[in-house]
């Protein structure tokens, strides 16, 4: 009995290696464009990759300029200020050390309101610089005065369970020495101090340039502040300068103080009080 060749399945363009069909010259142009601006035009100023160490042109990730707004309450919540002057209204009131409140989507003040400091994208000129030991790091390309907003930590909001699962997977990959994740876990203590809200943002695959900020055992030159927009359930994580930062200086902050694994990933922060290993704790 004659056999017939199977009917071929329809092509799936999304899974094809399209880069193999791009001429070498065009591939060089695409690589140069990606290396010239990590944000791909998403920010007000380009953020170039600078590498004098090896031949890696840029880091692979999907750029997201701000955190997902899916946690908005979804109804008209916010101030009724007009003209963008939100002074003295509930949205402009401080909420304590390490916490900040800003106007949200439901506020009538508009995008030009002065109480939306962290909502216009990256707040300073930056560049991503390759280091022979740390890998990529984030540096400022201008002088930054103490207290100035620098950038938000953007990425995927994930549940506690998913964060634990991913961290276990990332730990296995990190042990091979060829992988570095960017999952940030922050705990916001409630006023009663008896409970806390845990926020997990994973910028490993999707995020912005804040994913390149390295650890410093002396606390670094950035402070992490939780910014809560009126009408939003989950705070955003934003970095502000904790001191004057000179042009060309690397941006760093403390990943934490707990080190449960003395044989953990090595730290190359170079501070006088460096512990030699990066912080680690139970997930």
Automatic annotation (TrEMBL):
Residues 124-256 form the SET domain. Keywords: Chromosome, Metal-binding, Methyltransferase, S-adenosyl-L-methionine, Transferase, Zinc. Transmembrane segments: none annotated. One of its GO terms (molecular function) is methyltransferase activity. The keyword Zinc applies. GO terms for cellular component: chromosome. Its main location: nucleus. InterPro entries: H3K9_Histone-Lys_N-MTase (IPR050973), Post-SET_dom (IPR003616), SET_dom (IPR001214), SET_dom_sf (IPR046341). It comes from the Eukaryota. Pfam families: SET. Residues 263-279 form the Post-SET domain. It is found in: Chromosome. SMART domains: SET. GO terms for biological process: methylation. This is Histone-lysine N-methyltransferase SUVR3. The lineage of its organism: Eukaryota, Viridiplantae, Streptophyta, Embryophyta, Tracheophyta.
